[in-house]
Amino acid sequence: MLVLEPANSMYSYPSLDKVNLICNTTPLGIIAPLGFDFFLIAMCTVYAVKTRNVPENFNEAKFIGFTMYTTLVIWIAFVPIYFGSNSKVITMCLCISFSAIVALLLLFFPKIYIILFRPDKNNRSAFTTTKDVRCHIGRGYPTSAAAISRNS
């Protein structure tokens, strides 16, 4: 996008005693990068929906799904507000800040809650074994020389 529309600034005079230095860009310069971001958000949301019913061992998809649904709503609300208002910088900053806060809270708060307030659930067996899925790590037999000689 920088090749088609190089970075440039211009002065804006909203009143006689105020001057703003703003980016001189067309709507295409905003829509093209946001289009790619929307594509990534939409694909992540689609895969979060597809993987929401996996076994409990892999329940990270649920939190990713909540994060992506909320992020998608924030960015869909952002587009008309951004193009319909005069305070584009504030709108962009608020949208990015809300997206970051949502990601931080919805992805990491459940883990922090378990670490701080539910230490009984903070062990390896709570994350690796359920009645549906067993997680086997390694070759399934002892590897030490003593254990091998005992089995022979």
TrEMBL record:
<feature type="transmembrane region" description="Helical">
    <location>
        <begin position="89"/>
        <end position="109"/>
    </location>
</feature>
<keyword id="KW-0807">Transducer</keyword>
<keyword id="KW-0297">G-protein coupled receptor</keyword>
<keyword id="KW-0472">Membrane</keyword>
<dbReference type="InterPro" id="IPR017979">
    <property type="entry name" value="GPCR_3_CS"/>
</dbReference>
<dbReference type="Pfam" id="PF00003">
    <property type="entry name" value="7tm_3"/>
</dbReference>
<keyword id="KW-1003">Cell membrane</keyword>
<dbReference type="GO" id="GO:0005886">
    <property type="term" value="C:plasma membrane"/>
</dbReference>
<feature type="domain" description="G-protein coupled receptors family 3 profile">
    <location>
        <begin position="1"/>
        <end position="131"/>
    </location>
</feature>
<keyword id="KW-0325">Glycoprotein</keyword>
<dbReference type="InterPro" id="IPR017978">
    <property type="entry name" value="GPCR_3_C"/>
</dbReference>
<keyword id="KW-0675">Receptor</keyword>
<dbReference type="InterPro" id="IPR000337">
    <property type="entry name" value="GPCR_3"/>
</dbReference>
<feature type="transmembrane region" description="Helical">
    <location>
        <begin position="30"/>
        <end position="49"/>
    </location>
</feature>
<dbReference type="InterPro" id="IPR050726">
    <property type="entry name" value="mGluR"/>
</dbReference>
<keyword id="KW-0812">Transmembrane</keyword>
<feature type="transmembrane region" description="Helical">
    <location>
        <begin position="61"/>
        <end position="83"/>
    </location>
</feature>
<protein>
    <submittedName>
        <fullName>Metabotropic glutamate receptor 5</fullName>
    </submittedName>
</protein>
<keyword id="KW-1133">Transmembrane helix</keyword>
<dbReference type="GO" id="GO:0004930">
    <property type="term" value="F:G protein-coupled receptor activity"/>
</dbReference>
